Amino acid sequence: MLGVAILITPAAISAQQASPPPQQEKDKAAAVKPADKPVVEKAATSETRDTAVAAQMRNVRFRFADNISVQIRTLSGALVPTTGHEFPVMDDKNSFRIRVDSGEFEILPADLANILNSYVFARPGAPLGGLSASIEKGQLKMKGLLRDKSDIPFETIGALSATPEGKVRLHADKVKALKIPVKGLMDAFGIEIDDLIKNGKVPGVAAEENDLILDLQLLLPPPHIQGGVTAIRIEGDGILTTFGNLPAARPGDKPGPKTSTGNFMSYKGNRLQFGKLTMDDTDVTLIDMDPADPLDFYLDHYKDQLAAGYTKISSTFQLRVYLKDYDKVGKTLAAKTKVSGSN
Q: pTM of this prediction?
């Protein structure tokens, strides 16, 4: 037989007598109840939902414009919709940014010069112009004209490094104006240009003493890059730029989807639109038809590349698109145009 012993002490009797009536307890609890906390949390979750499309790239020449491209050796990141867009649209390069969590880009000196001439210093009254870049003894050499100094020629040679903020520092070891050595970049450029740069009127370029600080997130045309540079060095005739921390490769590892070979761009998850096709739970890989050289991709003309290739769809709706390189498509289109024009 189970017995229960109840011990009643004077303290317990005192506490019971001091307790308020049940209705008063309910009123007190209602008075201190947090106001609408669950509703606030639900709204915040809805507004911050992830709509980015995961992206991987390997061995891709990504063209931002006719005269600007970067060689993407590897990229792991995402296509992130910009403000006002619910998802990335391939036909609108301002609808998304390319977030680079980790990757390696090679920028050729000619492309860097084209970026500066065509975008950074392209506006009327720009202080610099006629810029060219080259690699000389493991350093970056730049030449140009001081526009507001009656087109006085200048040249500088220096080293590149990554800043803690993820930007690129160009430290000038030697600077010449009219082939005469000067103390530093700002001495050559003059007060007017120095003020323009320091006041942020030249996008993507800042001045720090006699160094120039370049922000690739602002320098490159859309779709803009989102990510900080962690290392930069001269390799051969190019500038090798590292974003994030590259994962250590294991023997036999091959990045990207198992179904892809060679050079590719892969997009997975959420929603992505290109042309008249909108994919939910995106799973599309763009594969180079000629893996002997990098996949030459130009977003402005990707439809021509699609039309020159072919597509496969799996039973689970995985889309595999085999693309023809843009430079080869361009030659074909030019030849067709020439033939039609002669008829």
A: 0.77
